[in-house]
Design brief:
heterodimer; A: about 280 residues; alpha/beta; two-stranded parallel ribbon; B: about 500 residues; 8-stranded mixed beta sheet; 6-stranded parallel beta sheet; 13 helices; about 35% helix; about 20% strand
Chain lengths: ~280, ~500
């Protein structure tokens, strides 16, 4: 990985979208006359909905992600109990690659008070035109919340980690209702890949019982039921039987390379719960 | 013979979507010429990278064969050092230990029956130990003169069970006659889909990206022809000299070392028609049409050169004739440039200027598509405005750039050229795989898309033979360019020759 060359920053406790856009332009231009060419290579807009309890985890994930996936990241931090307003922090993170500075844009928005209720109206003007938009929803979504609904209307893909949810496999019923509306990625599903691969290599032998963390085990069981019509019992275990030990940035990064619906995952989710 | 017997998704419904389909069947990879530089610098580092990514077959073994007297332990130690030095990935001991456990070495030149029997015994043992089922990939990294005998013996002794594939390193022959003879020999013993002739340029991701650029983007193909393109320049430049390979290079020269293979393959990929699909024969059929369509250039449209003393990045560099092992009156060319014409409807009268050389100012491989100028200069001062230029950077700084005209801010309507860049490493921040990783894996899978077919090789040699025949009529006045320059001055005139 390339080393970080510089981070430029702008912030405002009470910002407008046009001020944020202007800040992005000025940060990009600032380094442009210092010898090395700043190059903006962007593949997508990465939106993230990050409730208070997930802020640290989201920031850590983002730190590893930026270099892997050149993008504009818009982090939405809902603060419904604060006074109305939008506080913004804009970062331009640039890396040395082949003698040039490659830059990622990060926009952190604290949506305060009533502004929490209309996140799409703030995020939409900030997305890059004609590039895919991914929404990473930290924690368990309130599936019937208007905020989720608004954001789903503007994105191409929803990325969740159902291992962050306290109520799997029950919550999968609600998730499955979104499949016809938006393509969904689940980081727990990716985490189970090595496990599924090991089961596939043992075909036609199939287990009758599997054990693993709740989300991954439920998805693998759903996958075996949907692919092989197998009757599978699930036991809870702390560890995955096969774990590539990818860090959160790597796991999210892979989901940002996936486009379109994944019918195998959708079938696994639909079959993940008890019959 | 080249059956694809990895378990398919119709047989195993759990495989779909797992992305593990590209795992080859069990096999032994047997490397002839295992003590050579290629094994050390490319083949073993590639095998390690494939092992690290879990892409090798679960039942797999490597057998190294060379004349050098050493045992398996010595060979394994040498290869471990090579992987540490030349590998692109961090070294993980457990990954290496697993690969080393599956590696054997047999010292023999494979010329006598005793040596051949030892190799056969070792392969049988590996089949029993590793479960490789008689499947063989023979990697022939040997000098051209050793190739016929080796092919003959391997054909004679091919396993009665499992499949057999041959990977053949360049140079494939020394001229058209020797290439044809080798192809004929191969065809007597093996089918075409068992033979994988390596041109490692085709394994580069950025070369494959040329196909993506052309055939995955609707905007380029309509203008990819004589109506819109003025000319194409393809450059394979090296700043290094011959690096102690005088024995090989004196006989090969730039025309056999690079022009005959890499350069002509790049011409073919740039000029080919869209194939009907992305399969080996569909692509190779289209490349072959281009190669057949290249007219033999007029001798004055081919420039050869040899470097004399000069400077590379400020350091003095010896001339070619002063390199160790090179004849003081050597007439071997270290530079070739040619103005080629692809005679078909798409490219008639559109020159392809190709050049390759050693001791040029920098290492770079590029394909530059120069579009025609606008028909009428509309703006007040267009002196800074150059024609649009699309440059595909194959290496280094892999990517694509497009030169376009833009208005200079302020009063008036001054237009000047600016660049839009796509930098491969900027959009996809993952290490590009080494060409050999892709090619070795593809050969194990039986996928010949990125390998050169017999008829392509013969067409390439036909062009080279014609050029070399013309060269024999006169003696070149070498050296004719200084190390660290872009070759003989006459090469620069090839673009403007017709104007």
């Amino acid at each position: 990985m390339a080393s970080i060359a510089h981070i430029d920053e702008w912030s405002d406790e009470c910002a407008t979208v046009s001020e944020i856009e202007q800040a992005l332009i000025e940060l990009r231009l600032r380094r442009g006359f210092e010898g090395k060419r700043n190059l903006r290579t962007t593949m997508l807009t990465h939106l993230a909905w990050v409730p208070q309890e997930w802020q640290q985890a989201a920031t850590e994930t983002l730190a590893g992600l930026a270099e892997r996936h050149p993008s504009r990241t818009v982090l939405l931090f809902p603060e419904p109990d604060a006074n109305d307003g939008v506080a913004a922090r804009v970062l331009l993170e640039c890396y040395d690659v082949a003698g040039r500075h490659l830059c990622n844009e990060v926009v952190e928005l604290r949506l305060r008070g009533a502004r929490t209720r209309a996140p799409a109206s703030i995020a939409l003007p900030l997305v890059l035109p004609d590039l895919p938009i991914f929404l990473r929803w930290r924690g368990r979504p309130e599936f019937d919340s208007p905020m989720l609904s608004q954001l789903l209307d503007m994105v191409d893909r929803l990325v969740v980690d159902s291992a962050e949810w306290p109520d799997v496999p029950g919550a999968y019923v609600e998730l499955a209702r979104l499949f016809d509306r938006v393509a969904v990625s689940d980081i727990a599903w990716r985490r189970s890949l090595a496990w599924r691969a090991s089961l596939a290599r043992r075909w036609p032998e199939l287990p009758h019982r599997i054990a693993g963390p709740p989300a991954e085990a439920a998805l693998v069981a759903g996958w075996l039921r949907s692919r092989a019509a197998a009757a599978i019992a699930v036991e809870r275990a702390e560890e995955l039987p096969f774990d590539e030990r990818l860090d959160p940035s790597e796991l999210l990064s892979e989901q940002l390379d996936v486009f379109g619906r994944d019918p195998i995952y959708e079938a696994a989710v639909s079959s993940a719960g008890p019959p | 013979m080249a059956t694809q017997s990895i378990t398919t998704e119709t047989e195993n419904p759990l495989l779909e979507g797992l992305g593990i389909r590209r795992r080859p069947e069990p096999c032994v990879l047997t490397i002839f010429g295992a003590s050579g530089d290629l094994t050390k610098r490319k083949i073993f580092p590639a095998l390690y990278s494939l092992a690290l990514r879990d892409l090798l077959p679960e039942q797999f073994a490597v057998l190294g064969i060379a004349r050098t007297e050493q045992n398996t332990d010595d060979f394994v130690h040498a290869m471990e050092a090579a992987v540490r030095e030349f590998g692109r990935d961090d070294f993980k001991q457990e990954v290496w230990d697993e690969l080393a456990r599956r590696t054997r070495y047999v010292p023999t030149d494979f010329a006598d029956e005793e040596g051949q029997n030892r190799v056969a015994r070792c392969l049988t043992e590996l089949d029993e130990e590793q479960g490789t089922r008689g499947n063989r990939v023979y990697y022939l990294a040997v000098p051209p003169e050793a190739m016929p005998k080796l092919v003959e013996e391997l054909g004679e002794r091919r396993a009665t069970t499992g499949w057999t594939r041959l990977i053949i390193e360049k140079p494939f022959g020394h001229d058209g006659a020797s290439a044809r003879a080798l192809n004929e020999l191969l065809s007597r013993r093996f089918t075409e889909d068992e033979v994988f002739r390596i041109d490692h340029y085709l394994g580069k991701d950025t070369v494959q990206n040329l196909l993506a650029l052309r055939f995955a983007n609707g905007i380029f193909e309509p203008i990819w022809n004589r109506q819109f393109i003025d000319h194409v320049q393809i450059t394979v430049a090296e700043s290094i000299g011959i690096e102690g390979r005088a024995g090989y290079y004196e006989n090969a020269g730039a025309i056999r070392d690079v022009f005959q293979n890499h350069l002509l393959q790049l011409v073919a990929l740039t000029a080919m028609e869209p194939p009907i699909d992305y399969t080996a024969d569909a692509i190779r059929n289209e490349k072959l049409k281009v190669l057949k369509g290249i007219a033999t250039p007029d001798p004055q449209l081919v420039v050869r050169g040899q470097y004399g003393p000069g400077f590379i990045e400020g350091e003095p560099a010896a001339g070619y004739r002063e390199e160790p092992g090179v004849a003081p009156d050597s007439e071997t060319e270290t530079f070739v440039a040619a103005r080629l014409e692809v005679e078909n409807w798409r490219w008639a009268d559109t020159p392809f200027i190709v050049r390759t050389g050693k001791r040029l100012p920098r290492r770079e491989t590029t394909i530059a598509i120069q579009f025609k100028r606008v028909p009428h200069p509309l703006f007040e001062d267009a002196s800074d405005l150059r024609p649009n230029l699309l440059v595909v950077h194959i290496q280094p700084n892999e990517g694509v750039s497009l030169a376009i005209g833009a208005k200079v801010p302020g009063e008036g309507m001054r237009v000047r050229t600016v660049h839009m860049d796509f930098l491969y490493g900027g959009a996809f921040r993952m290490g590009l795989p080494e060409a050999y990783e892709r090619l070795i894996l593809d050969a194990m899978l039986g996928d010949a898309t990125l390998f050169t077919r017999a008829d392509e090789i013969e067409e390439q040699w036909a062009l080279v033979d014609a050029i070399v025949a013309a060269w024999r009529r006169d003696r070149p006045s070498f050296p004719n360019y200084a190390a660290g320059t872009w070759g003989p001055r006459t090469a620069e005139e090839l673009v403007e020759w017709h104007r």
